[in-house]
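Model it.
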Amino acid sequence: MALQSIRQRTLQVTQQADSRQGRLRGSARDIKPARIAVASVIGIAIWFLPVPIGLSLEAWRLFAIFFTTILLVLIQAMPIFPASVLGMVAALFTGVLRPDQAYAGFSKDFILLIVAAFLVARAVIKSGLGRRIAFHVIRRLGRSTLGLGYSVMITDAVIAPAFPSNTARSGVLFPIVQAICLGSGSSPNDGTEKKVGSYLMIIGMASLTVSSALWLTAMAVNPVGATIAQEAGVEIGFASWFLAAVVPSLSALAMLPLILLKVVDPETKHTPEAPAAAAAELEKMGPMSRREWLTAGVFAFMIAGWALSEVLAVDKAGIAFLGLAILMVGRVYTMADLKTEGEALSIWVWFGILFTLSSSLNEFGFMTWLGGKVASQLQGLAPTLVYVCLIVVYVLLHYLFVSQTAHLLALFSVFLSVGITSGVDPALMALMLLFATNFFAAITPQGSSANVLFVGSGYLTTTELYKYGAVITLANLLIYLIIGTPWILLVS
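Modeled.
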């Protein structure tokens, strides 16, 4: 028996060593010197080009740095973490950003909210509550992967109007989606992420783009945009927003799971035996444990706190950290668990940096200058053509933003003004720009803080995130333009 035990232990150590070596080799393959050289040459060329009229030298040089950082990720020269760090270092050492400017993103409350929500999601899984929720969902809707996808989108659309923060809502949705993935036998830790997990994670991101466009109160910047539109003579309230959004948004909710099922092509599509298997697993689990009850109470508290945060004037990140603290004091989540969470640190660093670079670019006037240049080229064209071009360009420019709020504040009034003066119906122009501010959120992994939990799940590669994000955005764009345009004109 002792000899067998030693052999088993030796085998485990060997497998762990092989796994570590595999990860190291994988990390080495993530860095591609030739592609880094290409991106660097392009970035240096932009740096030394003459500064366009209307821009400061700092704005142009920061654009060169930001563009190169994103290009490194897009062409898969290196992962997003080292690319972001190099971008920050370049901005610092060239004097484009001061240290207080470069590090500003690390203290943003919504970024800290993401980190805390990520850790709470881990606690939901560890306690067993996530597994229990997943089996309940699978028992009712688990006959197909498509059915699970629709369950995610419907859940999000129903709870959305109570959450003025799509980032906070992602903190509710993510642990549920992750639990369903694990309950379906799909995990990035054992190579089964393509079974159903990749599909459900991208569904989670897609869902947030639609639910945020469906309700005026589902995204913090929506009321801000409505106020700006009011100054242009367009009145938008809760009822009028919902009436204009309901047909294109429900159309997107119906179509996106089908489109993504075809594009993502999960390995498992039909699971007629899953509901019975889930019921059997629930029977084995028995009644809820103390840890599950505590986690459920904390999770319910956080959901209520986030939903009422505007009314109670409490900080959303503070609610998340309080929930995390209770789980740690209750020994549901421990310091030993925390030591393994390198992904939370990674999210905090790369998203904080990219948010800072993008926000600084906006503060330097680059985004407003670019939007104005593009919009001015469309004046004099037919109103319909101006309308379509403005929406398409508005969406594409989100490749340069790491914040939906910053995007709207920089470009919304400029594009709205050009559209109205070109003869586009004011209500149509305002509403479609506001809807676009939400439905383009998945265009890049960093396109919205609501994406980050799903990005950090391990189920999707960077290449897949950009590819599927482009598919989601293109599908949303076509659905809202083709279905939404005549509907808005009819009801507005």
